[in-house]
Amino acid sequence: MMKIFRTAIHGQPAGPRRPMLAVIIAGFALSIALPYFGLLNKYVIFVLISVGINVILTISLNLVNGFMGEFSVGHAGFMAVGAYGAAVTSVNVIPRWMGAAAFPTAILAGGLAAALVSLFVAIPSFKTRGDYLAIVTLAFAMIVKSALENMDVLGGPRGFMGMQQFTTLPWVFFWMVLSLWAIRNFVYSAYGRGVLSIREDETASELSGVDTRKVKVLTFALSSFFAGVAGGLYAHLLQFINPSMFDVIKSTEMLIMVYLGGVGSIAGSILGASIYTILMEVLRPMGVWRMVLMPAVLILLMIFRPRGIMGLRELRWFVYKAIPHSGAAAKGQNIGNT
Questions:
Q1: Is 324 helix (H, G, I), strand (E, B) or coil?
Q2: How far apart are the first and last CA of the chain?
Q3: Which terminus has fewer CB within 10 Å in the chain: N or C?
Q4: H or E stretch including 240?
Q5: Which of 171, 221, 315, 325 lies closest to 5, judged by CA?
Q6: Which range marks the domain in which residue 108 is found?
Q7: Gap between the Cα atoms of 191 and 60, Å rounded
Q8: Which CATH number belongs to the domain containing residue 261 in this structure?
Q9: Phi-psi sector, 262: left (phi>0), alpha (psi -120 to 50), beta
Q10: Cα 76 from Cα 228, distance rounded (Å)
Q11: What is the pLDDT of residue 337?
């Protein structure tokens, strides 16, 4: 487990860094200045925070559905595990007097809880091929929702509360950048090459020496980790969570964002999450009809542009200049076996 996270953090030597670093620094400074100086009202700040959380969710699901070519439809279940894990850690485990200093610990606890639970889904699921992952993940999301509704210690259907509002725009920007950076590094690592080979042809990937089952499990765990991180941020934003927030509709929203922005694209994940979140707010006066319009847009996309806006394409900033031909990256036959 730790090996996959080390791979995601370190990755391979990157390409152009200076422009991206400047954008990150400017973005972080702006995320502090906007709420501090009151340049935007609280509603707009809330929407920006929601965009950041949805970007984390979208890129985490895109890692499985886009880069690996599998089909997971129960991502809201891992978000729920992360949300409740972070909330319980924040309220019942970490002393109250530690305040915001312990917030990263709570978010990490939620992410690790989601990653651990994902192993119980991934290990049996990836013994088979085809669409079984979709069925298993859908069932998992329903099980998680039902289990939370029947756990009085977590509030049951009434929900869980008591979290302080630590989810601010700078924190969300930090976790969003971390998730994008980690997943980009992972995609261009030796494991990431194994992931892409599975998407293209799993049989050929196995014949090339890739331990496809191991790569799948570790990729799924990394994806679930960041879904749990998003869940923890979501819980500390609303300061209240209940099982109904993590139903099939929530998983469907994540799928819309992935396939709207584009599969197998980091830039597409940012684009899809941003467009969907902002459009849902713009269309809020339509009431429930907005929930009809957005799936209709997705259907049109699947017909006329099935890979999404940025499907299998990437912005230059998210692409490495070159992949070294020595070391683990050159030993394709050892991917997943190290």
A1: coil
A2: 12
A3: C
A4: strand 240-241
A5: 221
A6: 2-334
A7: 16
A8: 1.10.3470
A9: left
A10: 9
A11: 47
Contact 166, 103 (CB under 8 A): yes
Structure token pair of residue 3: 């090996």
Q: Are 182 and 189 in contact (CB under 8 A)?
A: no
| The residue to which tokens 């669409």 are assigned | 131
Which CA distances in Å does 47 have to 164, 172, 273, 275, 278? 19, 12, 12, 12, 7
> For the residues 40-57, what does the mean pLDDT come to?
97
The residues pairing with 44 across neighbouring beta strands, listed in sequence order, are none
For 2-36, what is each residue's pLDDT tens digit?
Answer: 555 455 544 444 444 667 888 899 999 999 999 99
The CB density around residue 12, as the number of other CB atoms within 10 Å, is: 21
Cα separation, 172 vs 175, in Å, equals 5
Q: The pTM is what?
A: 0.91
The position carrying tokens 């590094």 is 185
- Which residues make beta-bridge pairs with 240? 161
Helix, strand or coil, per DSSP, at residue 229: helix
| Cα(130)–Cα(167) distance, integer angstroms | 38
Number of domains in the chain: 1
Question: What are the pLDDT digits (tens) for 121-146?
Answer: 999 988 877 778 899 999 999 999 99
